[in-house]
Design brief:
Length: 589
């Protein structure tokens, strides 16, 4: 007789065998603890039983076997005993086989990893082949069940099954978003060991997450493994690690790291090189940045004008013009010349700080080199002068711009129009606006809003309404700023009818109308005893989902009374009180 007993994760006791015969009903006799996960007991028995003895013995064995099964379940979470050759197999002369099921281990894995609340799948995935498990994996990843997908990949790895690589990518990215970087790193390695090649986006996501958590060492190890996996690091990978090093004070470490990468054959990425020099300049100063710049040139990583312009921009923003001069001197020493971007960066900073003498010097240099001022240059100058109230000089630069055949753009005109309106020179602003019709620059929404705002502040609402009509004719759609500016100006001079025109236009275009606009128009109409029109505006207000308040209703009641319909006004007042729209203490005003 051959028996197989499978135990799971614990040492259990089984009934003893007395004289090579197993008394399964005995509860007192037990063998010593069995430490092996699977053990077999083999014995031979002469079978000279009579047929009826055999059947009776068989029936007894089956019932006792069921009792043993219940005991095993109670003691050990699960056990399963079965005969190797089946219950209905006839006894042959000589030997007969009788055993315990071999499926216990796989059932235990199934119970551990396929919780019915998490898996919508029947049975165990442990016994599945690779294709079946990959179908389950894809389904889990598609439904966002990352925990169960993680367990499944673990099982597949133990069984030497290759997981579905796109699902692995989705799982890794999901774990990264959940800040489970350790698991994400482990599954990425499983994917690589299985022959998969993660994409650069996944690698960069993981490197970024590791750096964010301060796990710089792990991020560098991952970077070293990238090329071996068939996906070499790119600019983003290097930039992420360099920034992390500087954030943690590893300035020299970052410099050494980039040098080592260049020696290993990393392409001399200009962007990464520029980021490194910028970080050195920020944390260690301009002098140190120039030293690193020279060292990198020896390694074959040469700066270009973009690198220098980045440094000039950084120093100018902080007003460190001596450092800017040092950078430009280094630029010239390498046989390069500043370009328009370099000069414009300097001019923008000088205008912001009001160093107009230095501005003139830079312009003189530009006019004597191959980098004359451009429209961007003039826009920087005109904007800086207008912000500082130097309108006359700004107009002078505008004239100089036109005479040098540098055509102004809409930014130039908008800047000048804004300055003219702030100074109250609205007639001059209108002249400039109308002159745009003869140029290649068409006035846009910002242009019109700028001039309308200037006219409204001066109280010139007739001209402002004229521009409003011109906008609509030119198919320039007014926005909320346009309408708010017009309403504000009309309120000041009590032009209710014009406000009503705008209100109807806004309603026609399905544009949002503010409560203040409705209130002004209704109050004005009631004051002028045009109650019928006021009620129409009220209906418009309700239909536009703008809820009227007591002030609006009180104005209408008062308007009805002032129109000689005192009784109707009283009835309306009482009706609104009954509807609980107005309180009993509300007095029409």
């Amino acid at each position: 007789m051959e028996l197989t007993v499978v135990a799971h994760k614990s040492i259990k006791e089984v009934p003893c065998l007395h004289g090579f015969q197993m008394d399964l009903a005995s509860a007192s006799g037990y063998c010593s603890p069995v430490k092996s996960r699977v053990f077999r007991l083999n014995c031979s028995i002469d079978c000279n039983f009579k047929t009826h003895s055999y059947l009776q013995w068989k029936e007894d064995i089956v019932s006792r076997r069921n009792a043993f099964l219940l005991r095993c379940v109670d003691q050990q979470r699960s056990a399963c005993i079965d005969r190797v050759n089946g219950e209905d197999q006839a006894w042959s002369s000589g030997r007969h086989a009788f055993g315990v099921e071999k499926e216990l281990r796989e059932q235990m894995y199934s119970r551990k990893y396929s919780d019915s609340s998490n898996f919508s799948l029947d049975g165990s995935f442990v016994g599945n082949d690779e294709e079946s498990n990959n179908e389950i994996l894809q389904n889990l990843c598609s439904n966002g069940k990352l925990v169960n997908a993680s367990r499944l990949i673990d099982v597949m790895a133990r069984r030497n099954q290759i997981p579905h690589f796109p699902s692995c990518i989705n799982l890794i990215r999901g774990l990264i978003k959940l800040d489970r970087t350790e698991k994400a790193t482990r599954f990425l390695k499983i994917m690589v060991m299985s022959g998969g090649i993660p994409d650069i986006i996944t690698y960069n996501m993981l490197v970024g997450a590791l750096c964010k958590k301060g796990q710089l060492k792990t991020a560098i190890e991952l970077l070293d493994e990238m090329s071996l996996s068939g996906c070499p690091p790119d600019v983003i990978t290097y930039n992420t690690i360099l920034r992390c090093m500087f954030e943690h004070g590893g300035f020299d470490q970052a410099i050494r790291f980039w040098k080592d990468q260049l020696k290993k054959g990393c392409p001399p990425y200009l962007i990464t090189y520029t980021v490194l020099i910028e970080l050195v300049c920020k944390h260690c100063g301009t002098v140190r940045a120039m030293e690193v710049l020279e060292d990198m040139a020896i390694e074959g990583c040469n700066p270009d004008i973009v690198t220098y312009n980045s440094l000039v921009n950084y120093t100018c923003k902080r007003g460190k013009y001596e450092d800017s001069a040092l950078i430009i001197y280094n630029l010239l020493s390498h046989g390069m010349e500043p370009n328009t971007v370099t000069y414009n960066t300097l001019l923008h900073s000088l205008c912001t700080h009001g160093y107009w003498d230095k501005v003139d010097e830079i312009l003189l240099i530009m006019n004597t080199t191959s980098q004359p001022p451009t429209v961007v240059t003039y826009n920087i100058l005109i904007n800086g002068l207008c912000k500082n109230g130097l309108l006359d000089r700004a107009i002078s630069f505008f004239d100089q711009m036109v005479s040098s055949n540098c055509l102004p753009d809409i930014i130039t005109y908008n800047t000048l129009l804004g300055a003219l309106c702030r100074e109250g020179m609205v007639d001059e602003a209108l002249c400039v606006l109308h002159s745009l019709n003869d140029t290649r620059c068409s006035p846009g929404l910002i242009t019109y809003n700028t001039v309308i705002d200037g006219l409204a502040k001066k109280g010139c609402m007739e001209k402002a309404m004229g521009l409003y009509g011109e906008m609509i004719e030119r198919r320039v759609t007014p926005d909320e700023i346009t309408h708010r500016t017009l309403f504000w100006g009309l309120f000041r001079v009590d032009l209710v009818e014009d406000a009503l025109v705008i209100l109807k236009e806004m309603n026609k275009r399905n544009q949002k109308i503010r409560y203040s606009a409705f209130r002004f128009v209704i109050h004005g109409l009631c004051k002028n005893k045009k109650v019928d029109i006021a009620i129409q505006v009220l209906e418009m207000m309700v239909s536009s989902q703008c809820k009227p308040d007591e002030e609006i209703y009180s104005a209408i009641i008062k308007g009805v009374g002032d129109a000689g319909m005192a009784e109707e006004a009283h009835q309306l007042h009482q009706k609104l009180i009954e509807l609980k729209v107005l309180g009993e203490e509300t007095v029409p005003r």
